[in-house]
Design brief:
Two copies of one chain form a homodimer. Chain A is built from six helices and twelve strands. A four-stranded antiparallel β-sheet of chain A has the order 7-6-8-9. In chain A, strands 1-3-2 form a three-stranded antiparallel β-sheet. A three-stranded antiparallel β-sheet of chain A has the order 11-10-12. In chain A, α4 crosses α6. The structure holds a DNA duplex (30 and 30 nucleotides).
Chain lengths: ~190, ~190
DNA sequence: ACAATATATAACAAAATATCACAAAAAGAG
DNA sequence: CTCTTTTTGTGATATTTTGTTATATATTGT
């Protein structure tokens, strides 16, 4: 089964996103091409900045700017900024990273087995329990995705921030329902 | 199951983050490679500043928590948080790092050969020219040293933030004189 | 302080992997 | 179909990584 070079490289990327790392040996077998061809594929993927070649295989490129984590947002594929990190821990022990509370709260709709949910306090940079936190939606401070959602450890902080930058302060559950309703209503499906 | 060399080092780091310390003996067993290879892995991890080699194993390097840079504040010796970085470039090409605008502005008093001065916008995380920036002094948001000094790229942002969290908005020069006067007056050496 | 033990480093050889150059094959263009 | 361009595979050669042995250095107990 012949495969176009671009398609093959996309395939490699797809595998890589699932498996974190992949060896040339494995790729030779799966794609039924020579090691040299794999080398060339990996070279161009690395050139484009998608991956990093390491001896024996490749890993997803994780050269983050300072201020960014090594993780990609599962929802929007953006590299996760340190200051808006949002982490969902599942009961299965899996960690799901989102770039900001906007994506994080949306992601929660897709996961029923959440164990703990953490978000980073926008003012103080500490991780806080998202369930106890307050979220300022639609303020004029857009640091990541829109609609802007910022996380605060206390309602007071959120309210004070709102005085200057507008928006509406919601607790965890209110923020979740607000966001999912909003996304749905825009798309118009029911 | 073969392990890519770089992945192996990542694995070591991951274990280290959970276990604080790890012995070479254990690593030899877990990774099924020779002690020499472990030594070499630890050497390069130490070179990169991620760990510290100790006799018989390694511990996590205390430098480089997520959210902190590798630098120490020249004034207060605190490790520099990423989100409040303040950098003074001298005409001699030297870089002086401060943990926050508070220390940075104070440091400026000691250096007459400043070339450029950069500070990080507290809202958006971008580095801005400190000379064009506005500083909110004495707000109730204390993320680093006190008196609290936060940097904003625009006067409007600073004012809006002030509405919620108090303090006084000053431009570059006003902030410098304000801070140095204040420190002097407290110490009483006229 | 000394020997006994453990750990670290250095040097070398073997194995694994990467790169290069060129020829064969495939794909497109006219 | 013929010519050109691109992609692929092969074998030779370079480079990197690894393990082993020997040697040096540090730690421990007496």
């Amino acid at each position: 089964m012949p495969q176009l070079p671009n398609v093959r490289q996309e395939q490699i990327l797809a595998w890589l996103r699932h498996e974190q790392q992949i060896t040339i040996e494995v790729l030779v077998e799966r794609l039924a091409v020579s090691a040299m061809t794999i080398h060339r594929d990996l070279d161009s993927l690395a050139q484009a900045g998608h991956i990093e070649k390491v001896r024996g295989g490749a890993v997803l490129s994780n050269r983050g700017m300072p201020g960014e984590t090594a993780h990609q947002c599962v929802l929007c594929a953006m590299r996760v900024p340190l200051r808006t990190t949002f982490i969902i821990n599942t009961t299965a022990g899996q960690q799901i990273h989102a770039c900001c509370p906007h994506c994080g709260l949306m992601l929660l709709e897709q996961h029923t087995d959440t164990d703990t949910v953490l978000a980073r306090d926008f003012l103080y940079g500490r991780m806080v329990n998202a369930g106890d936190a307050f979220f300022l939606v639609d303020s004029e401070v857009a640091v990541c995705c829109t609609p802007s959602v910022l996380c605060f450890g206390t309602e007071q902080d959120a309210q004070r921030f709102r005085q200057g930058f507008g928006g509406v302060v919601l607790d965890y559950h209110a923020a979740r329902t607000h966001l999912s309703q909003r996304h749905r209503s825009v798309l118009g499906n029911n």
